[in-house]
Amino acid sequence: MRKQIVAGNWKMNCDLSETKNLIQVLKVQDIPSGVSVMIAPTYTNLLAATSLLVDYPITVAAQNMHQSASGAFTGEISAGMLKSVGVDHVILGHSERRAYFKETDALLAEKVSTALEQEMTVIFCFGEELQDRTHGREFDVVKNQLQNGLFHLSGGDWNNIILAYEPVWAIGTGETATPEQAQEMHAFIRRTLAEKYSDEMAQEVSILYGGSVKPNNAAEIFGKEDVDGGLIGGASLDAESFMAIVNAFV
Ligand code: PEP
Predict the structure, then answer these.
(1) What's the pTM value of the predicted model, to 2 decimals?
(2) Do residues 243 and 197 lie in contact, with contact meaning Cβ atoms separated by under 8 Å?
(3) d(C-alpha 176, C-alpha 199), whole Å
(4) pLDDT tens digit string along 115-160?
(5) Which of 42, 114, 162, 194 is the most buried (most CB within 10 A)?
(6) Can you spell out the DSSP letters for 91-153?
(7) What is the average pLDDT score of the chain?
């Protein structure tokens, strides 16, 4: 069901004690009813995070996982391993994974299928690069990423998919899409889902915006009709900023 969601992607930040401290500060904050809050610490701190958050309304997500169940994949982590430490949400397709680790749409399609088979929820990231937007091909790029990464799924599978539209030019740059640019793309994404599946299904999918969301711009972006929340990088590492964003829904 379509929900309001704010998810913090902590990337390769926070050692164990920093992770515990940040979670302890988040735990004493009031979470507005109707908003789902998620955090994605690094792998080594997932068990500490889920242990600290038992019975507390903050969901812990992983930042990535491997597409295989097990095997000779040195350095990789499977869905089953994540579930064994209490993690059943995973971010897939982040632009940093696509750019630095050469994750392709085809690989991501496999990872999504594996995650769903393991009854996990996927936060699927996608978005155009700056040159795509300057050449006017942002809609084509986004549609291709959706088609190649997710359109093998059945309508029912989408109960466990959250989309995160993240224009690459806005990630970590301090440059944010305007609320109008975000709304225009989110509405396009919903239309694309409606064409492939159905209007009803498209209305049920949560679509987050990501890219330099901060306390001073979150309310305006989240106020747009087709924006259901945000995936937050830099600002999620500071409890006060993150909670200001969580409280930005009007
Ligand atoms: C991200 O990495 O997903 C992200 C949105 O980062 P930032 O908020 O720092 O732009």
Answers:
(1) 0.97
(2) no
(3) 29
(4) 999 999 999 999 999 999 999 999 999 999 999 999 999 999 999 9
(5) 162
(6) EE--HHHHHHS---HHHHHHHHHHHHHTT-EEEEEE---HHHHHTT-HHHHHHHHHHHHHTTS
(7) 97
Kindly report, residue by residue over 182-196, the tens digit of the pLDDT.
999 999 999 999 999
Residue 210 Cα to ligand 1 midpoint, Å, equals 6
CB distance 172 to ligand 1 below 6 Å: yes
How far from 97 is each of 63, 91, 107, 195, CA to CA, in Å? 9, 10, 11, 28
What is the Å distance from ligand 1's center to 128 Cα? 14
Q: Is the CB of 213 under 6 A from ligand 1?
A: yes
Tens of pLDDT along 41-67? 999 999 999 999 999 999 999 999 999
